[in-house]
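Encode chain A's predicted structure.
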Amino acid sequence: MEMRYSTHPEHAKHFTTEELRQHYLIQELFVPEEVKLVYTHEDRVIIGGIHPVNKSVALEGSDQIKAETFLERRELGIFNVGGSGTVKVDGETYELNTKDCLYVGRGGKELIFESDSSSKPAKFYIVSALAHTTYPTTKQSFADVPSESLGAQETANNRTLRRFIHDEGIQSCQLVMGMTTLENGSVWNSMPTHVHDRRMEVYFYFELDENARMFHMMGEPNETRHLVMKNDEAVISPPWSIHCGAATGSYTFIWGMAGENKTYKDMDQVAMSELR
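Encoded structure for chain A:
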């Protein structure tokens, strides 16, 4: 498990491109037969990828979180962004097709991840937050989750928003997760942008063409920076930072938040005139 520490916005102003990438960008999430985890001190969230190909892979506790089991004091959101696969939680099997979501509550002991086919293996993207109580393990199929259309073609941000783990969907302690898909011809997400000082956020970009690139915007509204990203990469967004971006083609991204509250609309909008 890689550790990332919180940074003050005054420090981030002076980071080089490489330093920005070291602090906020998460690459190579899906390594065959391995669990890749990044622990950020931004609300103590863990971001990771699990990529079983020819054998099952277990998500276990570690000395870094001082826990015998991964969910001893945590809850977990899982999205499958690869081929079909299964997640076994304490012996109960949950089948996850592409873009399906599974929430696992605090206290689950055995977590086993498997792919249905080694020729098209599953890729499980995970976000975990601290939990003070236990909510039931719940699956939400992509096909059944409500959707909301946002933006417009003329502003190049026509997109479909789907909320999975939230106040009116899968219940959790503090974790909020969903998925946004950009329509063909649209490239901008979350613009006009915002910040939310009461919780952190992480974006995971996928379904980008191999040669496409995402220009993810971050930093304080009057001190913006950017990171150039590619497919299957994630970026940590501290509470003081904007988070939006544009790519060289259409894409999908998963957003995950944790912090003081779960109110999706609790955000501070940033006027376009404020951006620098």
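The first strand starts at residue 2 and ends at 4.
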